[in-house]
């Protein structure tokens, strides 16, 4: 009998149950996804049918506590799901990942009223959305946001713009980071997080075009005197938004790391298969040392990325601070995905540059992993600071 897996709340989850879930995901991918990816990706078409199937699989409630209708999965199991899906089509993971970060903010920091009102509907996918942080002039430096929320009786009036928001078009509710005190010092003490449902004063100004990560919608959201009830302030107190957000980014970075593992694995799989059927100089190219060197490095990157991601997910499940571990996993896995995608294209040669094979999609999708959820440059700084803080002289 395999040892049980423990989630962040200390609840046990059997390895057998985890395997059943992963088997269900793989069956779904083989049956309903794999053969449709290239057409949907080429058309940059939102996969409505697949989203409905993800609802049935419970993915929108994957990490929501069971008492609110979710699966309460450990992060370690969730990361394996993300990796498995990313090996087939990484875009699908973005549809539920940003949504689950919003869910985690409510589950961890929301009032009991907020949890009971929103989490059950988040879990079923009835309400879907994501995290809205980035602004036209603000990305990694979250404290530089300019969106404001001004108290007006029992409401707040929100003004400003968010950009590069996943699920911005198809989603209906977003965890919105704003400034409730523009003069606060330090700056993060004046930031708050609201649940904002679409309505008057909340418009989607445009869909943003991308070189990769197709299918999922990325949009610019504009708030013009948008009125939100005061009871939608997550946690019920102003000034905690930055803390709530940073806590969610640990999970987001584990997700990006898991996506990187999936992309790296897919590139290795494609390169390994192709190298055994493509011949030059009278033999399969996998028998040439130049190709073997690439495959050896690619396989090593995959395994190292997987282990770093598992380590970060286990730390998250234990309730430990894991910004260093999540940063390491995100940094290494995303770079592994990028390098493996490039090496896969080199092994395929001219065919790697063709849209007839999935190689070019991996090559376009991988760079996003180095940028999303905090750039890799920022991850290096976080890792270094934690290395110093954890090892004082």
Report on the architecture of this protein.
By secondary structure, the chain is of the alpha+beta class. It has 3 domains: 5-128, Acyl-CoA dehydrogenase/oxidase, N-terminal domain (Butyryl-Coa Dehydrogenase, subunit A, domain 1); 130-239, Butyryl-CoA Dehydrogenase, subunit A, domain 2; 243-390, Butyryl-CoA Dehydrogenase, subunit A, domain 3. The protein contains 11 helices and 11 strands. The strands form 4 sheets. It has a 4-stranded antiparallel beta sheet, covered by helices on one side. Strands 3-6-7 form a 3-stranded mixed beta sheet. Strands 1-2 form a two-stranded antiparallel ribbon. α9 runs antiparallel to α10. The longest helix is centred in the middle third of the chain and has 37 residues, at 241-277. It is globular and about 80 Å long. The mean pLDDT is 95.
* Percent in strands: 15-25%
Q: Indicate how many domains the architecture comprises.
A: 3
Class by SSE composition:
alpha+beta
Q: Alpha-carbon distance between the termini?
A: 44 Å
CATH superfamily membership of the largest domain, which one?
Butyryl-CoA Dehydrogenase, subunit A, domain 3
Order of helices and strands, N to C? EEHHHHHHEEEEEEEHEEHHHH
The CATH architecture classification of the largest domain is Up-down Bundle
CATH class of the largest domain: Mainly Alpha
Strand order of the largest sheet: 4-5-9-8
Question: Could you name the CATH topology of the largest domain?
Answer: Butyryl-CoA Dehydrogenase, subunit A, domain 3
Question: What's the Cα radius of gyration?
Answer: 21 Å
Give the CA-based shape.
Answer: globular
Query: Which regions contain 5 or more consecutive residues with pLDDT less than 50?
Result: none
- Overall pLDDT confidence: 95
Percent of residues in helices: 40-55%
